[in-house]
Amino acid sequence: MVEVMKLEPVGKDYLWGGTRLREEYGKKIDITPLAETWECSVHPDGKSVIANGEYKGRTLADVLKEHPEYLGSKASNGELPVLIKFIDAKKDLSVQVHPDDKYARAHEHQNGKTEMWYVIDAVEGASLIYGFRHNVTPEILRKAMGTGTLGKHLQKIEVHKGDVYYVPPGTVHAIGAGVMVAEIQESSNVTYRVYDYDRVDKNGMKRELHFDKAVNVMDMSIAPDVSQKPRMVRYYPGCSRELLCRCKYFEVERVQVTKGSSFSVMHSSFQVVMCLDGYGEIETSDEDRKPMRFQKGETMFLPAGIGRCRMLGDVEALKIRC
Q1: CA–CA dist 66, 295 (Å, integer)
Q2: 50 contacts 59 by C-beta, under 8 angstroms
Q3: Which of 40, 102, 207, 215 is 20 to 30 A from 233, alpha carbon to alpha carbon?
Q4: Across residues 81-105, what is the average pLDDT?
Q5: Residue 225: inside a domain, yes or no?
Q6: DSSP label at residue 238
Q7: Any idea what the CATH number is for the domain that residue 242 is in?
């Protein structure tokens, strides 16, 4: 019988990152800054590795290539549809936008990038950029770039721990300094930078901007209202559950376990458990296998069809499936 796979992430040292993923989330990745950890990824730019069991030391990408049934029947193209990250923004990220599937596949030979953020933590007064305050045009944006006034067109939103933001392709956006998020996105690494605060990298070079491509894919209308609304939390003996996001690419649920939470991983889809806080273990119906223990900062891949599972402990986690 297949087993729960604990994953070793890949780190990224983007210039805006901090040190919290190493100091608070136990990431043994010796790069500074440690901006992102790609927790569950088969993308060529960063493949997560299996840390236990039969497939220990192999990439998740290779195992799923051999066993596409682990993805489940909903993954129609035989590829893991998601890339799951922790992000520690010590400084502001660049103002950026992502293309949709049609544009990205035609011009970048990758998927587009639909994404969702769950705010794990945010310092007082932290913010993010989400869309435009009013309708704009390429000409308005180009002039604003030249005069350093782009900010007056952007919608800036104060963020707090527990907020959720769905970011469809074409939405200009940026995570602000002092924000830590769990990001669930399509399996893609296509980003078009619009503005990067004239920063330079460790080699003294400004990072490339992609203005012309950005305006080709950008939604230039007024941004929708993304103010936080009450979410429905369902309470069960020993746990609570709330649906954070459901779109054509993924479904994300937040689970708070105080004693135990039972769930099933059907043949239709894999599931990924991302531990945000606490510690616990996952039991499966295979009595010959020991429970998979995990703690804050760790991520597990549960192959489709693994069946009945039970999460025990004192845990805050995200559960992701397609």
Answers
A1: 29
A2: yes
A3: 40
A4: 98
A5: no
A6: T
A7: 2.60.120.10
Dihedral sign from CA coordinates of 318, 10, 213, 100: negative
R_g of the chain, CA atoms, integer Å: 20
Which among 46, 34, 65 has a CA at the least distance from the CA of 8?
Answer: 46
107 SS3 class: helix
Cis ω for the linkage preceding 44 (within 30 of 0): no
- How does DSSP classify residue 274? E
Tokens of 90: 């010590």
Query: How many domains are contained in the chain?
Result: 2
Task: Give the sign of the dihedral formed by CA 208, CA 212, CA 218, CA 223.
Answer: positive
Q: How far is the C-alpha of 63 from the C-alpha of 46, rounded, in Å? A: 15
Same domain flag for 119 and 150: yes
Q: Which domain holds residue 307?
A: 234-321
Q: Is the model's pLDDT at 76 over the cut of 90?
A: no
How far is CA 222 from each of CA 61, 139, 226, rounded to the nearest angstrom?
A: 39, 16, 12
State mean pLDDT over 220-232. 95
Can you read off the two tokens belonging to residue 222? 């007024």
Q: How far is CA 206 from CA 210, 244, 293, in A?
A: 12, 36, 43
Q: What is the largest CA-CA distance in the chain?
A: 66
Q: Which residues are catalytic?
A: 193
